[in-house]
């Protein structure tokens, strides 16, 4: 039997050594040519190099499918090869897709099938459609991790998510309350994302989710998130939080001349980012 | 621009129906699936080939009667690369037959990610200095939950390439009340989104007075549609939830403007699989369904 997302993630977090999720937002435009002559090979070999130099420092990997789907069908092959590779290196490594899914019903089932086949353990969802979305996702696949974006990290998300409703709760709080009131998040593999760029929202999401729930953080690095807010919301034994860093790590090797020196810079950066999160 | 082309087609064909192309392998006629399985075995490739062959048949049947089709990307992605291949070829085929294509992908993401989605679906992707069209659909559905800056990359791409978007203002599912109906100082989130949309939907209008920036308004919520219609005079509404999801014809009135334009009503299953699994007479069944639905919607015009 293979472990599900929750089991894999807790296994990693419980080691207490890392709070880092490495985001493979592998923008083909930015990848140095020395990674490979042909674009599809180049993107995969880039991912492989990043995975090789960071997997022992990370609690999870996250792939943003957009950067791959932009390459059309070849992008799908790269995603699959990448998740296969991660699994071959460390079968307990959780792999998340930053898919921002908002399909439900039969369309949601189809989407889940798609991402499962690509090798993902968990997917991120945008809650705009309400709880119908989680109903169909949790019914379709009990092992799949569903990570709910109640409050994002971008500037304009407050135009919707931070609005104070006439019930006296903010929209993002209501999203989480709807989930908590309706589901057993542990049994149904539901998780929350929280933004380091909005420390108050992060505090509140931790409060609502409880100390024992793993929270994935967005918005560190270039987005300038509040690291202190991450530390104070680390949860039970300081082992229930982890932050995604993408560009800030995977492109930290730019300027180097070959794969080896690129990898060294990436590894140093991953160590530094992880350290900063404690 | 998108709205202009759509409105011209609507008037020319006197049709306000949008046909959803949501392939379900299990309902496609055996003749078509067997052919694909014979050629490729029981593989994803066969699935993709069957989906494409079926879609081409459907497009041939419906093209005289409708202006626009809406493939939902999830139904294609589930078959992996072969599914996306079928998605791409379905889009190309529909365009060859003079149909407009709305990709139902419900994208909602931030800055560079949103831009990448906009590139692959609506605009062009930069591949080593050369700009290449990938899917090149006419219009896309977009999720507004991340606020205005998640919409702007799509809006800019629409402006540059003369494409359109439908922003999910009020979806047709019952659970849409959970978030979209939350009230802020007496106003629902749906209406607050509409205020944002309207800023952009008044910028550039076609000869009929419509914008490339439209909204999704579920057929199941005619009251909301009435208010949205007043607020967003220049936006075209994409109306899901008619037919299979139980929306009624008379209620569709509030989605249209006085000029008989301003909305396209989507029907998927009720056109392509009106009775579930299709039999040998599927061509007749689909053609009848499309003619009947076009007529039904036109009753209220």
What attributes characterize this protein structure?
A: 278 residues; alpha/beta; globular; B: 301 residues; eight-stranded parallel barrel; 12 helices; 12 strands
Structural account:
The complex is a heterodimer of chains A (278) and B (301). Helix content of chain A is 45%, strand content 14%. Chain A has 278 residues and is α/β, with parallel strands linked by helices. Chain A has an 8-stranded parallel beta barrel with strand order 1-2-3-4-5-6-7-8, surrounded by 7 helices. In chain A, helix 2 (39-54) packs across helix 12, helix 5 crosses helix 6 and helix 8 runs parallel beside helix 9. Chain A starts with a helix and ends with a helix. In chain B, helix 2 packs antiparallel against helix 3 and helix 3 (44-62) runs parallel beside helix 5 (80-96). In chain B, the strands form 3 sheets. An 8-stranded parallel barrel of chain B has the order 1-2-3-6-7-10-11-12, surrounded by 7 helices. A two-stranded antiparallel ribbon of chain B has the order 4-5. In chain B, strands 8-9 form a two-stranded antiparallel ribbon. The relative contact order of chain B is 0.15. Chain B is globular. The mean pLDDT of chain B is 95. By secondary structure, chain B is an alpha/beta fold. Chain B starts with a helix and ends with a helix. Chain B has helices spanning 2-13, 30-40, 44-62, 73-77, 80-96, 111-121, 148-161, 177-180, 189-201, 222-231, 269-272, 282-298, and strands spanning 17-21, 68-71, 100-107, 124-127, 130-133, 139-142, 164-170, 183-184, 187-188, 213-217, 237-239, 263-267. In chain B, helix 10 (222-231) links the parallel strand 10 and strand 11. At the A-B interface, helix 3, helix 4, helix 5, helix 6 and helix 7 of A face helix 4, helix 5, helix 6, strand 4 and helix 7 of B.
